[in-house]
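Session log. Operator J.P. requested a structure for one protein chain; no other inputs attached. Running the standard single-chain path with token output.
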Amino acid sequence: MKVIILLGGFGTRLRPLTCNTPKPLLTILNRPSVEYQLELLKRHNIKEVIFCVGYLSKKFKDYFKTGEKFGIKIHYLEEKYPLGTGGAIKNAEKFVDDKIFIFNGDTLTDINLTEMLKFHNKNKSDVTISLIRVKDPTVYGLVEIDKNNRIQRFLEKPSWDEITTNTINAGIYIFNSDIFKYIPPGVNYSVERGLFPLLLQKNKNVYGYVSNSYWLDIGTPEKYIQAHSDLLNNKIKYYKIKYFKGNKYIKVEGKLSVGKKTFIEKYVKFSGFNCIGNNCIIKKASQIINSVILDNTVINEGTKIENSIIGKRCVIQPNVIIESGIIGDNSHISKYSKL
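Structure written below.
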């Protein structure tokens, strides 16, 4: 079985981090986030994927190439202009010979794909949509199902008085091949707003697979930091994380992941859940709290960084305070600045 992964978005909610790097290539614990999806696919014996790319597409090809290094075969389909979820999926139709999985590229999950496929086949479904339960459904599109998990209605970002369920679309689908004929070619089209309601009108078998698995949309700075802390806190199955535990000169209160060829000087203190990229330098007497520092960045002495993301190739001069900040790649922050 094959998988389509939708990777063409601009990642606007994560700018300026995505000005130079497409969102699915932003690292989580020093691995591109989409690499976790590939690991999940391999665990369920899926070894062929179609990358639907657009924005900064060359960066995907430069990193993953044919996929051989990652134990998976990768095809690339490049959009010349944005086509939405539906248009991107339609472009991949030539690779579809049977049913196929479809992933949104900004999802971190450990969903059981084998069980989802069994559910799809058992119900003779035309389309199966993965669903999860959330505490605040008002920021998502709700999906109503009946007692047999057949989907009855879609409701986009309801107010509290409209809420009838807390199950939302988790962005992982199984399509039978004949569903592609309902997607118009060469136009910007949304499967969520266009195709799925159309299939209900046509009385197609559209089912919701309700999962209690871990799921996170990593599209915002807050969620991006949360993805790091969740992995460090072992909330996601399958992934073994190597920690830096500190020593008599470097204090770690919480959990810390450190990349290759990174140097940490004496008397640095880490609190909470933190990730330091590759080829970084963290100088003496700095404090890092619940933050992510990307590759090739220098944090000078006496600096405090809290709940923040520091981009690649940055230089943070001495005695800077950054709280809840997002610092783009190649930034230079002058000493004694407070952000």
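Operator note: The chain has a mean pLDDT of 92.
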